[in-house]
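In the current project phase, the collection of sequences with tokenised folds has grown. One resulting record follows, to show the layout:
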Amino acid sequence: MMFDGCIEPITESLWSISVDSILQTDGFARDVAVAENTAFIAAGQSGIQVWDLPSRSKSIGFTGYEEGGTFLEFNDLLLIGRDE
């Protein structure tokens, strides 16, 4: 047995969004991981970007990595996570 449904909320106070700041990233921000004052951004073909949030500045960016003496570019990076 399967039940399906689609409801329309009758109240708009179920959730809220606030924009604290806007960062102009290279590429598209596909995924963001935040740890303390640092944002790690998966920016599609622009690779990984590391941002310092208090200063709103990009600390460093990576477009690929080196393996076996060869530079390999990221191909449309979608997800990012930070190991603890």
Notes: The beta strands are 31-35, 38-42, 48-52, 57-62, 64-67, 70-73.
